[in-house]
User: Fold this.
Amino acid sequence: MSTEGNKDAKPVTDGDSGAGSESEDNEQNDTQAGETEVLSKRQRKKLLRRQQWEDQRDLRKQRRKEKKQKRRRERQAQGDEEAEGARKRLRRETAPSSLRLVVDCSFDSLMALKDVKKLHKQIQRCYAENRRALHPVQFYLTSHGGQLKQNMDERDKGWVNWKDIKIEPEHFQQIFNKEELVYLTSDSSNVLTELDQKKAYVIGGLVDHNHHKGITFKRAQELGIDHAQLPLDSFVKMNSRKVLAVNHVFEIILAYLEKGDWQEAFFTVLPQRKGAVPVGQEGSASKGGAEQQDSDSDSDSAEPITKDCFGALDQQKCREQGGQEAGHSESEQPITEGTAA
Assistant:
């Protein structure tokens, strides 16, 4: 019996091993097939659409390129007459001024880095406003170096390509004649009533939160050059201090060159929360607003004062609107000691 049992038993061979492996592969294929069959009709359509989208990627790219080339040819054929005419009119209307405005950056060592960054933003604002002004001035940055230059190199590398501005490492006294210079400072007893196109007006590039009171006036006296303040008191009554940020002084002068009226220039630029009203209408501003408006910072995003805000009710609305704008502003601009008002 043992011999018969041995005859009936089949030995294990390599072929049997292969058959077992093949059986396992078949089971896996059956499992995958089962999973594929589990996909719903919607899922299969989605997979098909995705595959078609991928297959047509190059075709879409080619079509976009052809459409772009077609539009370019059409513009060239038409000559783009309207746009060209608008550009020509704009160039004719823009009349550059011979007036020179200088931002004196020699106070770099007196500022903390955070204030240097704020000065950089103010300079950017001056540059942008001058580029789109009706009568752009000749814009100078002098004593450019130190923290300011380093910050500009790190955060605004494109400054080296700025147009219509002269950025000099030298002090302004090395660039202009002494008799041409007028330092704008709110501490001066001289009131500027007219702008002399032959002069170079200097704005102190200092953001110090009033830590160095009167420093620009002292600097002008030490250098022996003329000084003056903008005629703010003659036209505007403010609930806050009259020291303005660098870009506000710059923009006021640009507005005056365009409008020829100091009061209109002031109310075009001054932030609402300064509580400014025309001289003679001081009673329209509430005392409660005075405390709220008096701030050591000016925001670029604040709405300018307009002549519609002269009345008491309108003044209240303007203060509320200005408060909302200031609340949403991410970047605050501090009052700058080195500017005139």
Q: What stands out?
A: Residues 180 and 233 are 25 Å apart (CA to CA).
